[in-house]
């Protein structure tokens, strides 16, 4: 058993970068020319020459000057509600309902019995095998995927606690946001530091990056950074960390949440209180999340399960993050020493105890992590991977994100999904060559600038393991 693999950096002696073939894959997608845009599709923005009207039942909603899209108009109280502002708030259960609830006919079981597929499961078929043909079908399919990932792998994800209170203080550019969450008896308090840009905040407040354990990416000016102590929320020292951390002080040490869902829960509570803390001056429509390695796995989960995250940036998340379990096993069986599902359930408490029941029969999983990433769509996602670190499963992340990309294509927004894979640096170090793609995503989705986010490349360094898409992706991508 290999513990603390996150901190093991394999020397790249085998990697002859000088002779490695650099293959830059640029996906160029033809713009659809429908007169009316469908669900999630872009319907406006500076520089946009496509449709500006949405199909019946949808409304073209402005996200920023450069991006409007078609979403379901709902007048019911099911849509996200924001409690009245107060600087030291005491609100009961703020809502974090996803922006679009599936149709009532959408069945979302937590398991699919008899599932057996050694290739990646098809995003575009429902659990019962019927095809996903439209964007509203996708809304239901997404809800199915969410239930399956929690059911098999990630465990329980509780909603808001009975009471949530916060205090915010600021000194110079440093803010402190202390949050107290309570259920009947127990209560917990967790505190995070927000580092603000200097100068005057834009109307609507500062954009914010929630950085798991502080993060390790360069942040452009004009964006506040909240350092999230996720290991404090749910400990992740090793396999003995199960049930330890603030989350479990509130929900009980036997709570069936994993570290992943406990971390997501904490992110959601931070956003809950930011929505009701005007003194913090955060624009809660412009929140990004990041983390590296184990914390990158968590950042990806947060982006998938918290729909108020506007931009998701996992860095070197590897297995359990932007890789697929099936592909990592293939990589291992092809001779690379990578982190697999069977290894990971013994290494740490990131996933539920239930997941261990499935790791030796991956074909029975009716999902893989291409579908976790696809849950983020249409919201933007860019993930970074490092081919020098073999155990991160470089083929697996490339293949898995290639599969996830088909969902962004189907929704008509492939430019909302980026992937960058290079070597030549230590684990969680940041090579300057990646900064332009990162800035493009920040600029467009947090800072409202008109820039291209067609960011997709790999160096193709898979340690001799060959990638054959047709072995893993046997679906054709619909156009919604
Ligand atoms: C926005 O970007 C597009 C594509 O680069 C360009 O055609 C358009 O002129 C830009 N608009 C503005 C206002 O800069
Ligand atoms: C799954 O499918 C494979 C190939 O079709 C077959 O060999 C295997 O027996 C099946 N497994 C189960 C549990 O049905
Ligand atoms: C894809 O693979 C699954 C599982 O083996 C199979 O059921 C399905 O028919 C395949 N689809 C296509 C289009 O080949
Ligand atoms: C947790 O589960 C164990 C084993 O089932 C049990 O002995 C213990 O009492 C439970 N603890 C709590 C707080 O429920
Ligand atoms: C990829 O896999 C398919 C199906 O297994 C096979 O027909 C094809 O020859 C493979 N291509 C390469 C380049 O290995």
TrEMBL record:
One of its GO terms (cellular component) is extracellular region. Residues 78-105 are annotated as: Disordered. It catalyses: a 4-O-methyl-alpha-D-glucuronosyl ester derivative + H2O = 4-O-methyl-alpha-D-glucuronate derivative + an alcohol + H(+). It is found in: Secreted. The keyword Secreted applies. Residues 35-71 form the CBM1 domain. Keywords: Hydrolase, Lignin degradation, Secreted, Serine esterase, Signal. One of its GO terms (molecular function) is cellulose binding. GO terms for biological process: carbohydrate metabolic process; lignin catabolic process. Residues 78-95 have a biased composition (Low complexity). SUPFAM superfamilies: alpha/beta-Hydrolases, Cellulose-binding domain. Its EC number is 3.1.1.117. The keyword Secreted applies. Belongs to the carbohydrate esterase 15 (CE15) family. This is (4-O-methyl)-D-glucuronate--lignin esterase. It comes from Hermanssonia centrifuga. The lineage of its organism: Eukaryota, Fungi, Dikarya, Basidiomycota, Agaricomycotina.
């Amino acid at each position: 058993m290999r513990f603390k693999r996150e901190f093991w950096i394999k020397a790249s002696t085998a990697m002859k970068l000088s002779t490695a073939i650099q293959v830059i894959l640029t996906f160029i997608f033809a713009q659809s020319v429908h007169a009316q845009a469908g669900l999630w599709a872009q319907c406006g923005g500076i520089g946009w020459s496509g449709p500006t009207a949405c199909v019946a039942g949808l409304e073209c909603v402005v996200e920023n000057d450069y991006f409007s899209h078609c979403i379901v108009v709902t007048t019911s109280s099911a849509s996200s509600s924001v409690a009245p502002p107060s600087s030291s708030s005491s609100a009961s259960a703020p809502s974090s309902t996803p922006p679009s609830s599936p149709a009532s006919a959408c069945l979302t079981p937590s398991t699919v019995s008899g599932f057996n597929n050694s290739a990646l499961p098809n995003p575009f078929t429902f659990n019962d095998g019927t095809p996903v043909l439209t964007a509203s079908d996708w809304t239901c399919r997404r809800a199915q995927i969410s239930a399956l990932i929690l059911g098999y792998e990630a465990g329980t994800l509780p909603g808001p606690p009975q009471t949530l209170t916060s205090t915010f203080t600021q000194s110079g550019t440093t803010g402190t946001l202390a949050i107290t969450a309570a259920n009947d008896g127990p209560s917990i308090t967790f505190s995070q530091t927000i580092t603000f840009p200097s100068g005057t905040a834009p109307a609507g407040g500062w954009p914010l990056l929630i950085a798991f354990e502080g993060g390790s990416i360069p942040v452009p000016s004009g964006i506040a950074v909240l350092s999230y102590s996720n290991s404090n929320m749910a400990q992740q020292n090793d396999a003995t960390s199960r049930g330890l951390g603030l989350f479990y002080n509130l929900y009980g040490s036997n709570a069936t949440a994993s570290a992943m869902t406990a971390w997501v829960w904490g992110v959601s509570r931070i956003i809950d209180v930011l929505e009701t803390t005007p003194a913090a001056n955060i624009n809660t429509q412009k929140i990004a999340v990041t983390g590296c390695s184990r914390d990158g796995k968590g950042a990806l989960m947060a982006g998938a399960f918290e729909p108020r995250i506007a931009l998701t940036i996992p860095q070197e998340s590897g297995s359990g993050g932007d890789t697929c379990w099936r592909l990592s096993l293939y990589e291992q069986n092809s001779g690379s020493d990578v982190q697999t599902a069977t290894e990971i359930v013994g290494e740490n408490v990131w996933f539920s105890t239930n997941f261990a029941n499935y790791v030796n029969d991956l074909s029975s999983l009716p999902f893989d992590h291409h579908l976790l990433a696809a849950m983020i769509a249409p919201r933007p996602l860019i993930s970074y991977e490092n081919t020098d670190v073999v155990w991160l499963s470089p083929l697996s992340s490339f293949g898995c994100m290639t599969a996830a990309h088909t969902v962004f294509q189907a929704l008509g927004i492939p430019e909302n999904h980026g992937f960058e894979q290079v070597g030549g640096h230590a684990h969680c170090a940041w090579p300057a060559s990646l900064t332009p793609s990162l800035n493009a995503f920040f600029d467009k989705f947090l800072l409202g600038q008109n820039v291209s986010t067609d960011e997709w490349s790999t160096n193709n360094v898979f340690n001799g393991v060959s990638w054959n898409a047709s072995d893993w992706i046997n679906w054709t991508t619909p156009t919604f």
